[in-house]
Structures are given as C-alpha cells and as structure tokens.
Amino acid sequence: QVQLVESGGGSVQAGGSLRLSCAASGYTYSAACMGWFRQAPGKEREAVATISTGGTSTYYTDSLKGRFTISRDNARNTLYLQMNSLKPEDTAMYYCAASSGPWCPGNWVGYSYWGRGTEVTVSS
C-alpha cells in the first residue's frame, strides 16, 4: 500500500523558512517522479515543484523560483521542499505526490498517489 506522509509545516512570519518532508513507502520510490503541490483556501491546487527519479531534473512554478528548492533522498525514500523568504501568499496546504512511473506529468491530475498534506501559514 502506497503511503506518503508529509511533515514540517507550521506557522512562520513573512521572510522565514520551513523545510517540508515527505516519507514514502509501499512502492519503489526511486522509480517515480515526485512533486510538491499546494492548495490555498478557495483556490485550485497548483504545482510547486517536481523532481525526476534521480533528482537531476527539477521544475518550479515560475513565481517560486529562487525561493523554493525541491530535493529527494532515494536512500531514505524521502522528498523535501526547502522554502525560504516565505510570503503570506504562500499560505496553503502542501501536498506531496508520486507519479506512477518515471514521467513527470504536467498537471496535478496526472499524479497517482497523494499524501494528506501539511499546513503552512505565513503571517505578515
């Protein structure tokens, strides 16, 4: 059974940092493209960043480039998201997701497995 468990969310002031983690189990973690997504209240789910199986190829939503860094540790079956210079508009539920294979879908609907999310609140 595939499980993705996010952690590391919390409340921070603008300008602060958080590091999210996602522990994966129940499948061959190293064989799947992984991604972070977020959904703010009243808004649609959006991609934050994705990372290829080996970690050599990453994608970021343009507005987040330079502030967020996605990484993965295939030995620990763990995905990370380092978030720096946080802004109030980064407030959202953050989800990690796994593709069913090495490809990275261009839209969140293409990801097969999802965690329950970790909440991030950024105050001004």
What is the strand and helix layout of this fold?
Elements: E1 3-7, E2 10-13, E3 18-25, E4 34-39, E5 46-51, E6 58-60, E7 68-73, E8 78-83, E9 92-98, E10 113-114, E11 118-123
Parallel strand pairs: 2-11
Antiparallel strand pairs: 1-3, 3-8, 4-5, 4-9, 5-6, 7-8, 9-10, 9-11
Give a description of the structure.
- The strands form 2 sheets. Strands 2, 4, 5, 6, 9, 10 and 11 form a 7-stranded mixed sheet that branches. A 4-stranded antiparallel sheet has the order 1-3-8-7, with no helix packed on it.
- It has strands at 3-7, 10-13, 18-25, 34-39, 46-51, 58-60, 68-73, 78-83, 92-98, 113-114, 118-123.
- The mean pLDDT is 95.
- A hairpin with a 4-residue loop joins β7 and β8 (78-83).
- The chain is globular.
- With 124 residues, the protein is mostly beta strands.
- The N and C termini lie far apart (40 Å).
- It has no helices and 11 strands.
Structural class: mainly beta
Give a short account of the largest sheet.
Answer: 7 strands, mixed
Distance between termini?
40 Å
Q: Give average pLDDT, whole number.
A: 95
What is the H/E string?
EEEEEEEEEEE
β-strand percent reads over 45%
List how many beta strands DSSP finds. 11
Backbone CA Rg: 13 Å
Name the poorly predicted regions: none
How many helices? The count is 0
Instruction: Specify the overall morphology.
Output: globular
Percent helix range = under 10%
